[in-house]
Amino acid sequence: MIADNLSGRELNAWSGASFACSCGKRHELNTQFYIGEGAEDNIVSAAAALAPPCCGVLLLKGTGFDVSDLNRTLRRGGYKVCEREIADDADFSVLEDLNPADDIRAVIGVGGGYIADCAKYVAAYAGIACGIVVRAHSSPSFLVPSSALSERGLPRLYKTVTPRLLVCDPSKLPESCEYNAAAFGAIVSRLVALFDWKFASLVRAEPICKEIYDAALGEIDTVLSRLRACSKHDVFVRRILLESGLRLSALAAMSGSSRLYSGGDTACTLALQVLRKHEKNDLRLQGENEFLFSLILTKIYPELFAARKHAIFFPPPDNNLRLEKMKEYFGADESAVAPVLSPYIDADSLKLYDYRIGEYEDELKAELAVLNTRINGAYKIFRRLYSDDGYFLKSYLDVSEAKLCVALAPEMRSKYTALTHMKNMGLTDGYLI
Ligand SMILES: [Zn+2]
After folding, report:
1. Which of 405, 417, 408, 337 is nearest to 151 (CA)?
2. In angstroms, rounded to a whole number, what is the distance separating the alpha carbons of residues 70 and 57?
3. Any bridge partners for residue 83, and if so which?
């Protein structure tokens, strides 16, 4: 069992893990971990996992991250180093224009989750190896084999690679309440992604790995019980969150899918990001928003069962209305919106999905109960991670904004979630009016 074999092991011992699973697959993690105090000092021996010395390495850094020590150490180790900075809101085309020189054999991203996505994309696009030096723990999706970037102002998910190397000196991570809360939110919100994964497997017969699923759930339970016993001032909160986030992203890497990071919570958050960017309003970190939408979705997902039993007619979803709203609220042009609209489902398929929801209602409701109890229990921990104990939450997200994001979420990620199904039932069109 994956959970039994890995959960007790220190993260560095997950390097190169490989298991024959009861789902019939062999799950492998081709990543070498160097986590601990002074880990960056060993960058030369670590980088040998990517390319031999004398090769070129592209150091891709996020805005504000100092990589001069890494650059110097790699040069002294025999590597030719090329350094590039990527702005926080760079479009994917900026990464394609980087065009690494022929002697560049590896890219090392230095920063947080966004720069990791950029490095994975460059590596996949240029066909070179990828490593990550973690300097921010707020968005711990480093090992997921996909990159969340934007194309013409709208979010897109690209299939990329799992980094072969991950280096992190925890003492270099920021001491920030917001970063801790974001990491906690990102971890706990995987519960929504797990429900959506289970939903897609029962209703659409999509593949799921029960062992990965159980291991992820066990990891979330562990972090909840450890943080319940901590205060925000405890020095080890940051380390617990870093390692837990990495374990979850390692499980996603072993599953070979981005399902664990493509739940309704993430899709709603992406809609909020585009909306607030267009309106030039303040935006909290991704994991903070994911947690807030997870709370909202625990109230909305039960409607899935209630609505199909009522004899009320809901008209089919209106993609033209969505297109108009995305032009109005996101400032996106029609040619950018059209390709991201989730396709209509034919009537026969919808009838089959509806039949299966009835057939598996008990199992789905039991899963939803698991989700609700944990997320609502986690809300107190989440609030108390902030220096103001979550006081700002009273005025952060208003109802109309949240409804718009919930209604447009299925256009932000193409994975079929419970929210996508609610759209197809015509249940969320009312949120757009
Ligand atoms: Zn499996």
Report:
1. 337
2. 11
3. 59
Q: Domains in the chain, start-ordered, CATH in brackets?
A: 31-174 (3.40.50.1970), 179-432 (1.20.1090.10)
User: End-to-end CA distance of the chain, in Å?
Assistant: 49
Checking DSSP bridges between strand 32-35 and strand 165-168, what pairing results, if any?
Answer: parallel
Which residues make Cβ contacts (< 8 Å) with residue 196, sequence separation at least 6? Answer: 259, 262, 263, 264, 415, 417, 418, 419
Q: How far is the CA of 209 from the centre of ligand 1 (A)?
A: 4
Q: How far is CA 99 from CA 3, 95, 125, 164, in A?
A: 41, 8, 9, 21
Q: What is the dihedral of CA 209, 211, 216, 219, to 10 degrees?
A: 180
Distance in Å, CA 208 to ligand 1 centroid = 8
* 402 CA distance to ligand 1 middle (Å): 35
Choose among 72, 59, 186: nearest CA to 133. 59
**Which tens digit of pLDDT belongs to each residue from 357-390?**
999 999 999 999 999 999 999 999 999 999 999 9
Q: Per-residue pLDDT tens for 137-181?
A: 999 899 999 999 998 889 999 999 999 999 999 999 999 999 999
Report DSSP state, residue 389.
Answer: T
> What's the CA-to-centroid distance between 23 and ligand 1, angstroms?
4
CA 230 to chain centre: 25
In angstroms, rounded to a whole number, what is the distance separating the alpha carbons of residues 314 and 170?
52
Q: What is residue 39's DSSP assignment? A: G
**DSSP collapsed to 3 states, 103-152:** CEEEEEEEECHHHHHHHHHHHHHHCCEEEEEECCCCCCCCCCCEEEEEEC
User: 203 CA distance to ligand 1 centroid (A)?
Assistant: 19
Q: Specify which residues 106 forms β-bridges with.
A: 57, 129
Question: Angle at Cα 285 formed by Cα 283 and Cα 291, nearest 5°?
Answer: 105
Q: Is 17 helix (H, G, I), strand (E, B) or coil?
A: coil
- How far away, in angstroms, is 328 Cα from ligand 1 center? 43
